[in-house]
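Many introductory courses stop at the sequence. We go one step further.
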Amino acid sequence: SSMYDVSTVSINESFSPLVGIDMTFLNNITAKVEMRKTRVLALSMTSQQLSETKSDDFVVGLGYKITNLNLFAPKRAVRTKRKKGNQEATTNSNDLNLRLDFTLRNQTALNRDILTGISQATSGNKSIQISFAADYALSKFLTLTAYYDRQMNKPLLTSSSYPVTTQDFGVSLKFILNH
């Protein structure tokens, strides 16, 4: 074997998003629509096969931002210095961001035998994912996040697996040091 022997060549394509629209309205509502595409081609020289894995996603999302929502502490006055003199301003960073995303995904995997010209589906699934997240800024440095994800998978080949539903939920606290 030579040091120039190549056993596998792969090409990865990812358009995330391929097409997307992201809008923020004056009333703090946000909306997004995205279409994503990925494809991985792997050519094996030892088995003379080309494997292709594709994924098509369609995402619709909505969000709403509630500004100056004071759940845990009273409002505070913060003094800020500006270049044109000293001015006193009251600011409150207690914003609540709500997001809901709905994703449809179609994944397929094919093996193509180069010698015989036969293509065979090896795996794939259709899935629906619903994600909800709520971020609350407790302060300039501290953010509280609660989330819920539900994903329902239906296999394209019934002999390879069963329909599966997974659910995740939780709470996280993020402390930021770089402000």
